[in-house]
## 1
Amino acid sequence: MNTGSMHVDETLARYSDLLFGTAITIYVLAMLLFLAALAGARSRKLSSAAQLVTAGGSGVAVDDRAPGKVADTPRRSLGDRLGNMAYPVVVVGLIAHVASIVLRGMATGRAPWGNMYEFISLTCAACVIAGLVVLRKPAHRPLLTFVLLPVALLMFIGGRWLYTQAAPVVPALKSYWLAIHVSIISVSSGVLLVSGVASALYLIKMRWGRPESDDPAATGSGFVAGVRRVIDRIPNADTLDRLAYKCVVFGFPLFGLGVICGAIWAESAWGRFWGWDPKETVSFIAWVIYAAYLHARATAGWRSNAAAWINVAGFVALLFNLFIINLVVSGLHSYAGL
């Protein structure tokens, strides 16, 4: 079929745009709910005066201030309730987001990631899916606010300044490799973005978090104190480090596969597997950084802050490669559609 004469369904394209905007709105709502969940989370520490003990192993909670008196069953904190509310809200936003991508593809009759607007949408959807899977435990769910923040920001930038009308792709992208190479890179990038967020939170926790033994009431009041309380209620540094590592273990080989597929496509399109085009070069640099991170995690003395900083460097390189290369640097991959 001649893709150059492909008909575009304007109605489906319009519905796709509406669902894209709806997804951003829902993500922002969920982000605020998760942030409120962190701010309203009840401290897990119990004061010695009100500590509950189990009577004779019977499983009945009693108050040690009044021996023999059965204590009320502790209710879930406001933070727990908000976190449980926000999780399905993200799922609804993701459904709208995926529907937007599908309708875009149906409207154009091609893989819906042929320009920067569509590529950002797909990568952000992959990031949200990875966040929902990795942070599915109730105790980890409030961390989705830090995943949704860059997602909402990138989608807003994509919809506001990088938006491209639904249309056939440029001739260079008329290949089945578009569906293979770009989708693999988008999915792996979404997973690695979650890893970068986890490592950034790990470094924040290590730098500004209070030791577990500190008195929660010693935080004080004011904006700075409020930020400190939010940091304190983020899962511990070890948990964040493990989450970041698991994401890289999954995303790194997938990213490498995407680079290999891109090289095969380059040989078919340009007659060479590798030409040190700016995007190829930065992709290689990002791949090396993530390889260094995995090596650092396996090396004694590098498993903590040093490895996390390497992962954050990979996060920055990945963002630069995904967006700046296409928008600013001139090269064979400059097909942003702007």
## 2
Amino acid sequence: MVDTPLIVGLGGTGTPNSSSEKLLRQALERCAARGAETLMFDGAALDIPMYAPSESARDEKTLALIAGLRRANGIIIASPGYHGTVSGLIKNALDYVQDMAEDEAVYFEGRAVGLIAAAAGWQATGTTLATLRSITHALRGWPTPMAVAVNSMVPIFGQDGTITDTGICNQLDILAQQVVTFARMRALHELSLQQADGEREADRAGAE
């Protein structure tokens, strides 16, 4: 896991191949290029029932989402901006993280979270990104210093779906690098703690 952290991506809309979905795929490709394993939940995968705290039954898509997030060493969230904030699709998926409240690693505890916002206008990108940061903090995640805000009113994709804007490409590179690097640093820290615990146990056994 130290060498191959799992980075899980959440993003997209009800429309396949949306801007936010393409940005997320590009970010995950950059994580994979740095040696990470990736797992993506796009708009279709996030088309799940509305979260209800009193409902304990979960459908297959929801169970797959929570299982993926539990395995994640790092997370990337990409949301379109709907009326100045995150989409209902993304917010609903994140509400289900409450199922991880009793986990040893509660919610997104100890995991870097890269954030991407794509909206029609710079004001909407800013407010959507701020909301994503607020949600990540509430879920005990660590937002990466680099976040990516994309004004979807400005064409940035070529006909083949690749990003033609050099600035956004650079930002996605930095975001991916930060998520993967933090995941590896966290894994090394946990490994060193386990080794230290093992050495202490060995010392105690030898003293006895």
